[in-house]
Design a protein that fits this description.
The protein has 2 domains: 1-30; 31-175, Immunoglobulin-like (Sandwich), CATH 2.60.40.2230. The chain has 1 helix and 12 strands. Helix content is 15%, strand content 45%. The chain has one helix spanning 2-28, and strands spanning 33-34, 38-40, 43-51, 60-66, 71-76, 83-97, 100-112, 120-128, 137-139, 142-146, 150-153, 171-175. A hairpin with a 2-residue loop joins strand 6 (83-97) and strand 7.
């Protein structure tokens, strides 16, 4: 009798642990991410933000991406059924981009829509200046608004330490500039 109780208890504990692990892995894969997670500085980059879901059962109606320092020449790609808005400001300092110096540009991109319950991608063409440091991570904070609810994918690991954050910002590993 005791062996049966011990065996049943172990089976229940293992099932509970398996369920928690499955929940944790589905939550981890639910973050907004970048399709290409490495890019060279001093070069153009196509940032494709993946939004795998809405907020629970509520569809996504707005995605807002903040552009970090050192990223210039930002051009969002139009999406059928979505309106694009940008916020332009002066940079804290001038940046070199190829043969040009730029002093202002897009600092935030927002896509808005009435309703969508499906997986989606949001694309921005941009330029990663030589002011960025190879080997570091560059984070793009994203706010995802839904008909009911909001996900703020804005958490950035402290001191470059990777941590399991509940709502991490999409990160891009910066690689050295490619020389011709």
């Amino acid at each position: 009798m005791r062996k049966d109780i011990a065996m049943t208890t172990r089976v229940l504990i293992n099932a509970a642990l398996f369920g928690l692990a499955a929940l944790a892995s589905s939550a981890a894969s639910a973050h907004v991410t970048l399709e290409q997670r490495e890019a060279s500085i001093g070069a153009p980059y196509k940032a494709k933000f993946r939004v795998p879901h809405g907020c629970g059962n509520s569809p996504t109606v707005k995605v807002r991406v903040r552009i970090p320092d050192g990223v210039v020449d930002v051009k969002p790609m139009p999406k059928a059924g979505w309106q694009i808005d940008t916020v332009n400001t002066k940079y804290d300092k001038p940046y070199k981009m190829l043969q040009t110096t730029v002093t202002e540009g897009v600092r935030e991109v927002t896509w808005s829509r009435l309703s969508d319950k499906n997986y989606d991608e949001f694309v921005v063409s941009l330029y990663l200046t030589d002011d960025l440091v190879p080997g570091r991570m560059l984070y793009f904070p994203v706010v995802q608004e839904c008909e009911k609810g909001v996900h703020r994918w804005i958490e950035i690991p402290k001191d470059g330490k990777s941590a399991d954050l509940p709502e991490p910002a999409p990160g891009l590993k910066l690689m050295p500039a490619k020389r011709h």
